[in-house]
Design a protein that fits this description.
With 354 residues, the chain is mainly alpha-helical. The chain is built from 14 helices and five strands. 49% of the residues lie in helices and 6% in strands. Helix 9 links the parallel strand 4 and strand 5. The longest helix is centred in the last third of the chain and has 28 residues. The protein is elongated. The structure holds tryptophan. Tryptophan (TRP) binds next to strand 1, helix 8 and strand 4. Tryptophan binds next to strand 1, helix 8 and strand 4.
Length: 354
């Protein structure tokens, strides 16, 4: 057995005075859009100051719903990580890495799969919604897809993270993670818990709808990408949904339900009351209003767009960031797995310890 097996494990991420630890994850969907920024990335950047952060590209999770997407994960990861850094994640402070580069995720997932029931995973409302959205028959859900939350629990607990920034749809996965942590500690580590019970941290912004008023999705084309040029932004904003009863410029309009106004409220809060008044009074036409919003969004996103363009010139940049990140992630993952194997009595050092 390795030395660590004998030392009662003090949860280092919960030590008084210790900086809490965050594990955040996103599936590699390629270039990110405004919804990803408002719903997640912005939160990650803010939390960077007060926590120790690990940011993970969940490439195995991407396969749960589309196993055929494996060939696109490398390019999608590249595009997404450029956006992460451009939006303000600092690679010197916060390691960024790819899930499949740290094999311990698979090992911990397997061990957790023994202590979570099939019924518990089937009861996961997020899985149910996903299956419904994809129009799937229940009998076609794969074993891996059913285990989505179990893999996510492994992602989080491998780093003994105590905070996980998520959108509301992910809270059921945090709950399952807490249950798995509790069950593991109870079964194997009652005297010296190996895992903290992490909490989800929601962003303060409401979910942003797409420009057409429907759920935002890149495949529908109803969003603005962080990397879009001012012309692309204008072209996209022009398609936005506005009050259908307001046909001519001087018709009075109703900003409630208007997608353009929703964006003003979020990205342009100081001007929003004046825009609301002018629209209702029939003094502001939708065409002008859209142009105004597009200009403003282009300005707001300029720093991200410009930083991204600069970073993209170095073809090795993302690879280097992810290689450094994986090294740091692996060190943590190995340390946790030693504790896990020791607690389970399977030999503190894995194969080396036999
Ligand atoms: N399930 C998350 C999503 O779809 C992605 C994810 C995978 C994740 N592993 C994670 C998020 C760990 C937070 C922590 O958005």
């Amino acid at each position: 057995m390795s030395e660590t097996a004998a030392v009662p494990f003090v949860l280092d991420t919960l030590r008084p005075g210790a900086k809490g630890r965050i594990l955040s994850g996103m599936r590699p969907t390629g270039k990110l859009h405004l919804g990803n920024w408002v719903g997640a990335l912005h939160n990650w950047v803010e939390l960077q100051e007060s926590y120790e952060n690990f940011h993970m590209v969940a490439d195995w999770h991407a396969l749960t719903t589309s196993p055929e997407a494996s060939a696109r994960t490398v390019e999608n990861t590249h595009d997404m990580v450029l956006d992460w850094v451009a939006a303000g994640i600092d690679p010197a402070k916060s390691p960024m890495f790819v899930q499949s580069h740290v094999k311990e995720h698979a090992e911990l997932h397997l061990l957790f799969s023994m202590i979570v029931t099939k019924a518990r995973l089937e009861r996961n409302p997020t899985l149910k919604d996903q299956v419904k959205d994809l129009g799937m028959e229940e009998s076609t859900i794969s074993y891996g897809h059913l285990g989505y939350a179990c893999l996510q629990a492994a992602d989080i607990l491998l780093y003994r993270a105590n905070v996980v920034p998520v959108g509301e749809d992910q809270l059921p996965h945090i709950e399952i993670t807490r249950e798995i942590a509790r069950r593991f500690n109870h079964l194997y580590a009652a005297d010296a818990p190996v895992f903290p019970e992490p909490e989800g941290r929601l962003t303060k912004f409401p979910r942003l709808r797409g420009l057409d008023g429907n759920r935002m999705s890149k495949s529908v084309g109803n969003t603005i990408l962080l990397s879009d040029s001012p012309d692309e932004i204008l072209a996209r904003v022009k398609t936005a949904f506005t009050d259908p009863k307001k046909i001519r410029k001087n018709d009075p309009g109703d900003p409630a339900g208007c997608a353009v106004f929703e964006y003003h409220r979020l990205f342009n809060p100081d001007e929003a009351p004046a825009i609301d008044r002018a629209c209702r009074a029939g003094e502001l036409g939708c065409v002008d209003d859209k142009k105004h919003l597009a200009t403003l969004m282009a300005e707001r996103l300029a720093p991200i767009r410009e930083r991204r363009a600069k970073l993209a010139k170095d073809p090795d940049f993302v690879r280097d960031v992810l290689a450094t990140g994986a090294k740091r992630a692996r060190a943590e993952a190995r340390a946790t797995m030693e504790r896990v194997r020791a607690a389970m009595g399977m030999g503190g050092g894995g194969t080396d310890g036999l």
